[in-house]
Amino acid sequence: MQLKPLKGQHHVSALTANAKKNYHFYTKTLGMRLVKKTVNQDDTSVYHLFYADERGNPGTDLTFFEIPNAGHTYPGTNSISLTTLRVPNDESLVFWKKRFEELGVDHDDIDQVNGRKSLFFRDFEDQRLALISDENNSGVAGGKPWAKSPVPVEHGIIGIGPVMLTVAELGATSTIMTEIMGYRKSSKYKMPGSGHEVTVFQTGEGGNGAEVHIIERSDLPSERPGRGSVHHVAFRVESEEELRKWVSLLKEKRIASSGFVERYYFRSLYFRDPNGILFELATDGPGFEGDEDFEHLGESLALPPYFEDQREAIEAKLKPLDTKE
C-alpha cells in the first residue's frame, strides 16, 4: 500500500482547568486567534478551544480541553513534554521576551536549540512551551497571524513548531516513527541546561513544522497528567482517502487504533506509540469555516451537526465563556 508522507504537525491538544483564564492567556497575551469554541466530542460537558492563525490552517492549532477539576501535572517520561510555537525570526524573540517581562509571564532567556533561537516559557498552569524562530528554517510554511491580534503581525505566532516527547525507551518509539509513520532521523543535539541527548525525526518537507524531537529518560517515573499537560499530538494527512489508507495500514500491522473518526472540522485516527503516548492522524480539511464565517470564528458555541439536537442540554452543562470581547 502506497501512502503519502505525513505533512508535519496538525495540532497539539492540551488540558486546562480554567477556560476563561486560558482564553485570556492565549488570545490576549500570546495573540493567537480563537478559531473555534466547541465541546470535547467524547465528553460534551467540557469545552474544546482551538487557538491558531487567522483561520486555523492545519499546522497552526493549539487546542485545549477544559477539565475544571484537573489536578497538578507531575512531569515525567512517556509524555509530550514540550510544545513549541513558531515565530517569524530572531528579532521576534526579542519582542516576545520584552512582552513576557511586561506581562509577568514566567520565561527563560533566549537560547540556541538545535541551531535555532528559542525562548522557553510557561503559561499560568505551567504548560511547557517555547517560541522558536523561523529565521533559519526551511520546509513546511507557517500560517498567517490574525490582523486583529493584540500582537503585531510581524511578530505573531505562525504555527506549531517541533513537538518534544520524553520516553522511557527510545527504540520502540523510533521504530513506530520510522517504520510505520515514515519519518526519518535527521540529527541529534544536546538539550541546553540539562545536556540530555535529543533525537530529531522529520517528515515531508521538514523544518520546524514537520519535526518531532525525542528524549530518552529511563530514570524518570511516568508523567502524571493534569492541568498544564498535553493530551495528544496530531499529524497532518492530506485527505480522507489517505486517512482511510492509514486505518488499513494500522490494522494490517496489528496496531490497535480508533479506526476512522468523524470530527466534522477534520477526520481523524488515534493510536498509541509503544510508550503509551497518544498520536492522532488528522486530515487538512474541511476546516473551521463550515459553520461560522471567517469574520466571526470562535465567537459562539459551535457544534457539529450531529450534536445540534442536543444544544440546549450541552449549553446547560457549560459555564458561559464570553469570546466576543
Which geometry do the CA atoms define? globular
Number of spatially distinct domains: 1
- Helix content range of the residues, please? 10-25%
Task: Specify the biggest β-sheet.
Answer: 8 strands, mixed
- Might you state the CATH topology name? 2,3-Dihydroxybiphenyl 1,2-Dioxygenase, domain 1
Model description:
The model has no long low-confidence stretch (mean pLDDT 96). A hairpin with a 5-residue loop joins β15 and β16. The protein contains 5 helices and 16 strands. Helices cover 17% and strands 35% of the residues. The chain has helices at 19-29, 90-103, 170-180, 240-252, 311-317; strands spanning 9-16, 33-40, 43-52, 61-66, 79-87, 107-113, 116-122, 128-133, 159-167, 184-190, 197-202, 211-216, 230-237, 261-262, 266-272, 278-286. It has a single domain (9-317), classed as 2,3-Dihydroxybiphenyl 1,2-Dioxygenase, domain 1 (Roll), CATH 3.10.180. The longest helix is centred in the N-terminal third of the chain and has 14 residues, at 90-103. The strands form 2 sheets. An 8-stranded mixed sheet has the order 2-3-4-1-13-16-15-14. It has an 8-stranded mixed sheet with strand order 6-7-8-5-9-12-11-10, with helices on one face. The chain is an alpha+beta fold and 325 residues long. The radius of gyration is 19 Å and the shape is globular. Pfam families: Glyoxalase. This is Glyoxalase family protein. It comes from Mesobacillus foraminis. Residues 8-134, 159-284 form the VOC domain.
